[in-house]
Amino acid sequence: MDKLTEEINGKVKDGKIPCQEALAIAQRLSITPAAVGKKLNEMKIKIKGCQLGCF
Hints:
The protein has one domain. 55% of the residues lie in helices and 11% in strands. The protein has three helices and two strands, in the order H-E-H-H-E. Helix 1 packs antiparallel against helix 2 and helix 2 packs across helix 3.
């Protein structure tokens, strides 16, 4: 399992992850938020409480 998947699995609850957590994962791993979003889509995990009002 890659580090991104591990980080996501550590924060996901009921198939959802808070936007703030997704952004924090991107920062910790030095990757773009878009890369985290792509992985979340692949894992069929929804983002909740989007800070940009997009989700």
